[in-house]
Amino acid sequence: MSKEKRISILILIVLTGFCVSVFYHYVLGAYNEQGYPYNTFLFAPVDRFSDFYRVLRSNQDLNPYFGTQRMLQYPFLNFLGFIFSLMPLSYAIFTFILIVAEFMIVACSYSLKIEGQPTNWTNVFILSFLTFPFLFDIDRGNFDGIVFVFLATFMFFFTKEKFIFSAIFLSFAIAMKPFPAVFLLLFIAEKKFRETLIAVLSTAFISLIPLLIFKGGFFANLSAALSISRFPDAIGSSGYFESNNFVFHSMSMFTIFKVYFIESGIIQRIDMSFFSSLYVKGVLLAFIPMGLYVIFLEKELWKRVTVLSIAMVIFPQISGDYRLLYMLVPLFLFLTNETTSQSDYFYTVLFGLLLIPKNYYFFPNTITEGFHDFSISYPINFFIMVLILLSIIVTGVLKTKGIPALKKAEAKY
To answer: What sign does the CA torsion over 287, 292, 298, 300 have?
Structure first.
């Protein structure tokens, strides 16, 4: 499948999914007079930008670890929150939106560029601004949008073999939230051990410097940053790990398991604390063969990045909708990939389905933050990513073993 065909199918899926969802929720809201969650595919309108405002409030006095508004552990993220808090709120959120939106335009125009043809700005607009993860991140004002900017920039330099710049931008992403550390395996796979060390040391440096300027002193701040129990909004204090009907808006495998327990009526028979401990051990064990696969077996960069991105999204115990932004990084690589295969259509469709709203059914027995608004979108996105993951790994393993049919198909394309 040519790049032009891949782009056409992807844009068609994104545009159709967006339009159908807008029409569906408009009808429910305007004509059926139903309120949230039926009148929007985003979060409750009264809570718009609240993720952004909470980060700013907890950091406006340079006291993120001992003040009354403490919320986040990560020092560099808290420092960015302080920088934004220096502006009036309206200017701060406008600046945040501008950074993420402008980067989306640049990244999408680069990825959708077809050699010898002028830029199709309609396609750029659709992929930049009509995808569900982008709209959800902007609606929440979540700093995962900035993490995505750092991750995509890291990957750009990585593809250009400017590995030191790549390592530095990866360290910015890891310093904000630890999950992007999985991409250190890409340096190891390329035997770039110096750059791996640079990324690790740079992450430590970026994380430790803000602790010097926060109130309370360096060592007290460091101790607090390493102790999640100091944070009143920590997920451990929310009931998320208890045998009840409460979950977060999350597509993580842990959440999918708990929703299954709730909806099947067996939640009261499950020791969720024990299950949580077992889950953490299980995903750590599951990641080992995935990491080995990325390092030793898979040769295509976009597939390596896809495997790591999916692990980063579904393995943490909570993973909000905005984390689907991370899946744009392997998508951009897939679109710019020069080789073609029989599976291109398959992956194009699945990537497209990840980017559209799917809030057409809500689980009746599951409660989130005060609402019955846990939609079918979460398990659908989870299973789409699992399907992509299994397809890449199984195909890669079979190809390595020299299955004749796969060799013949590879030679044909």
So the answer is: positive
